[in-house]
Write a structure and sequence with these properties.
By secondary structure, the chain is an alpha/beta fold. It folds into two domains: 268 residues, Alkaline Phosphatase, subunit A (3-Layer(aba) Sandwich); 81 residues, no CATH class. Helices cover 36% and strands 14% of the residues. Strands 1, 2, 3, 4, 5, 6, 7, 8 and 9 form a nine-stranded mixed sheet that branches.
Amino acid sequence: MNIERVIVFIIDGMHWQAPSLLGMNNYNALAADGTSIEQSCMIVPHHPTVGEYGQLHSTSFPNPVLQEGTIFVKKGNRMLQDVFGPDELTAFMANSKAYESVTRGFDICEQYPGHSDEKLVKRSMELLDELPVRYMRIHLQTPGNEGRYLTMTSPDKPYYRNIWGEGSPYAAALTEADRHLGVLISFLDKKRWMQNTLLIVTGDHGQSVKGWHPVIDKDSSLTPLLFHGPSIARNRALPYFEHTDISPTIAALLQKEPPNKDGGSGLFIESVMETCNQPFDEHPRYIETINKQLNEYNALRARILIQAEADSYYSSFLTYLENELLTPEPFYHQDRFSEWYRAGSTRHLVEVNQGILEKMRQEVTIH
């Protein structure tokens, strides 16, 4: 059966354990009837507001990476909405202005911070009912907001810096988000559209148990993901997925070219398809590796700086690295994100980083 519409339903900051710990019935029912990934991995959710990236994007790394389908985020890249033709209507629906930089090219864009998640979903359904929307991204902001708030507020509450604590507003917002997902499913069922709608449900990034999405917390870079709809395998669980793979996979299912084809692009994961009976091929897991490298780099750099208090050589060593005097290329850390494309390929980026980490390990060992 043909895919008549694509809906990407994003629950902001959804922890990868939320469906199981909170009993998100609507999410879990879709997952059982489709293809799911317990932990989809995205690049660290760093959110610089200055420098080249801050001038280009208004949101954290995973959002443009998801839309562009590549970790080589740069000016001029296409986004998923750009693969649709002029006669195919696209819509971006959110209750936050944070995503303005990834809305370019959408035919309809509604971002009303005053809307509740419930109102946002209601408005999205009204739009689907009124117009032949081919691709819609719905972004529910409340869970992510609640996760951020509880890290710094309500120290007298059991959920202070514990998203699973009793009475947690983050957990309550996720439970509500699942209810809103159920309302959308009921709407699609009533319209008899479920059988020809490709529905993807995920988070834009994960959530620390302490709240929010600090880059050094592994849970910040993991979130659940599911595909449901025409041609999607039923009751299939995949062991690994990267958020860079979402846009290329959607494009391929629609028989369209991915938004970008470069050395940092994600993959079309054929294993989501019911016609693919081959075992899931070993994923290169580049993003998982890069995230580990970023965390190790930051930790080693901090240790070397401490060593520099007693011996200024170590400060010089870091300067040599930053100025590429010891290596032909710098370490591709998060503050150089806008330069990552210069590596040419993700594999080469990983190799460069690994070599520099080894030099840093040696200096820490020597000390």
